[in-house]
Amino acid sequence: MNSPVRLLGICGSLRSASLNRALLRELAAVLPAHATLDIDDKLGELPLFNSDIKDDPPVVAAFKAQISAADGVIFACPEYNYSVTGALKNGLDWASRPPPTSPMRNKPCGIVGGAAGMSGSMRAQAHLRQMLIYSDSPTLNQPEVLIPKQFERFDSTGRLTDESTRDLLRKFGLAMVAHVARHRS
Amino acid sequence: MNSPVRLLGICGSLRSASLNRALLRELAAVLPAHATLDIDDKLGELPLFNSDIKDDPPVVAAFKAQISAADGVIFACPEYNYSVTGALKNGLDWASRPPPTSPMRNKPCGIVGGAAGMSGSMRAQAHLRQMLIYSDSPTLNQPEVLIPKQFERFDSTGRLTDESTRDLLRKFGLAMVAHVARHRS
Amino acid sequence: MNSPVRLLGICGSLRSASLNRALLRELAAVLPAHATLDIDDKLGELPLFNSDIKDDPPVVAAFKAQISAADGVIFACPEYNYSVTGALKNGLDWASRPPPTSPMRNKPCGIVGGAAGMSGSMRAQAHLRQMLIYSDSPTLNQPEVLIPKQFERFDSTGRLTDESTRDLLRKFGLAMVAHVARHRS
Amino acid sequence: MNSPVRLLGICGSLRSASLNRALLRELAAVLPAHATLDIDDKLGELPLFNSDIKDDPPVVAAFKAQISAADGVIFACPEYNYSVTGALKNGLDWASRPPPTSPMRNKPCGIVGGAAGMSGSMRAQAHLRQMLIYSDSPTLNQPEVLIPKQFERFDSTGRLTDESTRDLLRKFGLAMVAHVARHRS
Q: Is the Cβ of A141 closer than 8 Å to some Cβ of chain C?
């Protein structure tokens, strides 16, 4: 018997037709039966982090609460300027504080991502992995989900049309669920 | 005769007593006589970048205009989660678009930074340098301004009290002005 | 009852009085009772990796065999040119091949390191972590062992004289042993 | 009138049929008329760097002398384990010492690279750029030469068959020659 695994997906792109958000939806559809994936809708509502703000505004508190409630977090990571998006980094700046009691601490994480170009978001994912060392969030190594020229793999309604990518997402989902289980005490 | 050099300082921290902003003020005070440094006050007013927004909002247009008007940009780079701040990355996401005509393209850049810990912001600066490859912004290599335990070097009013740091800023300013001159066609 | 944990230490510096190798010796002295740490002496004997060499030379085979035999690997990571040493990278180039059956695959890893300067080897460790994603080697996040100005913490015979560092090594050892246990199937 | 520009190419792969070395040969063929590119053959002969060796062995001295004699250095950068090769890093460990008088200091550099996979060597190039900050070697930003699936672009004798790649090399050569000129004086 497998106990339920609740995953939270956070997409670094804010545009409505984001293919990285589409990647999260497609992942949700191929997860093992005991796992679920909710997709965050608060990242784009967060104010810019400023440590002069001593109490978390309500939207920040809600953003952090959903991380706390999840068994694991999956970042969908576009690549802007060879790094993560400002929006995603801003979300981490909020979520990782205060360090000793941050909801990111010991939270199992995974990363998926795609890009219009050949990088498939690999430069952004490398930066994200470094950030997750700071927050002490154990992050799945492999399989890596790095999708180059991602617009060729989705139709105009944002549905995945490439079966090799779907198969990769299925393997990633299995590995992510095992990763969460491994880090449960 | 040296022609005037107008530099723009952009501080990645939004807090009012930021020591990284203080570093920019101290740098301004030791620049060569023909150079000036204005400090940006718009980064914290920018909305989160979203490529669905087709026309630059006024604050974005103003942020980009001051970069265009400057002969060079100096980033004051704190380190949050072993990387640049979300606010700074968000500013770059706006400023670097559209790539062919972005105000960052060919703009000579330099980086200074400090941190409360031992890193002196070096991990954040390494990420920032990678971002500036994307925007094709030639960035000064050395001297690097990496200030560890920066609170020990400023008094409670944010004035620099450490003369070795002031000397480093003076050398950085000279190198930055030469860097701008080298990249003027 | 804890089953024995055999760790292999690999030091990226080849000089005889290396303080990174000294760090491994000091770590060995504070490990939990059921853990042991052997220190590699083959890295400096390896030829430069060349994929034209189809069969592993004996010293390469011996280097890889000791990794295979270990339950976990701890890299002592100096920082040369803001990255790992060429010798350490060369060892990984050998050990990580062929990828599907490499002794590094799924091998739990940890990193310690120090430097004469302020970085404490953090830039080199960041590069090493990226390499270990390729080889799918789960690597301990924290505590990070980053020792700045390491010559101030050892006496002239290479003995650690700083008790806060010894305490950090003790915590690292406990975390590493737990990390190995977590990744045993 | 353009003064002659002597470039040195250093290939990080040691295998005889290296496509990264082939990339250097193809670059040599499309450089502006006043520029020449010699290709190093000593990297694979260097011993592993060890700071206990106080005097440069002859092959090290010869390796460094050719860097000193060149107006600029172009690295052909394969990607092993998501980073530069051990051989290339080892060459830099030798060439960058001693820091104040190293032949790398202020030496204009450029990077080209390809890989069998989709990365086109971008992860390795990012690491190499960080190393070149240490040695204060100004490195050309763009155009970046990142060749994915490079075996599809060369014939079985190592001749480039892809004209878009040749055009990119031509642009890179022009930019590199301008980069060298900018850093003279």
A: yes
Q: Classify the complex by whether its ipTM is higher than 0.90, answering yes or no.
A: yes
Joined together, the tokens standing for residue D51 give 């700071």
Distance between start and end Cα atoms, chain C? 17
Task: Output the domain CATH number for residue A93.
Answer: 3.40.50.360
For C128, the closest chain D residue by CA position comes to D83
Per-residue model confidence as pLDDT tens digits over C58-85: 999 999 999 999 999 999 999 999 999 9
Distance to chain D for A130, nearest Cα, Å: 14
Number of domains in chain D: 1
Give the one of B15, B85, B131 whose C-beta lies nearest to A83's C-beta.
B131
- DSSP of chain A: -PPPEEEEEEES--STT-HHHHHHHHHHHTS-TTEEEEE---GGGPPPP-TT--S--HHHHHHHHHHHH-SEEEEE---BTTB--HHHHHHHHHHT-SGGG-TTTT--EEEEEE-SSTTTTHHHHHHHHHHHHHTT--B--SS-EEETTGGGGB-TTS-B--HHHHHHHHHHHHHHHHHHHHH--
CA distance readout (Å), D174 to A95, C175, D29, D138? 46, 53, 12, 16
What phi and psi, each to the nearest 5 degrees, are found at residue B38?
A: -95, 145
pLDDT of residue C36: 98
Residue D184 to residues B62, C95, D181: CA-CA distances in angstroms?
Answer: 36, 42, 5
C-chain residues near D91 (CB < 8 A): 86
User: DSSP for B21-66?
Assistant: HHHHHHHHHTS-TTEEEEE---GGGPPPP-TT--S--HHHHHHHHH
Give per-residue pLDDT as tens, C116-154.
999 999 999 999 999 999 999 999 999 999 999 999 999
The pLDDT of residue D53:
96
Rounded Cα–Cα distance for residues D105 and D126 (Å): 19
Q: Note the pTM of the prediction, 2 decimals.
A: 0.98
The angle subtended at Cα C70 by Cα C67 and Cα C71, nearest 5°, is 130
Host domain of residue C9? 5-183
- Length of chain B, please? 185
The DSSP bridge pattern shows strands C109-114 and D5-11 to be unpaired
- Using alpha carbons, select from B138, B49, B64, B130 the residue that is nearest to residue B95: B64
Strands, sheet with A109-114, edge to edge from the N-terminal-most edge strand: A35-39, A5-11, A72-76, A109-114, A145-147
Per DSSP, D160 falls in state: B
Greatest C-alpha distance within chain B: 48
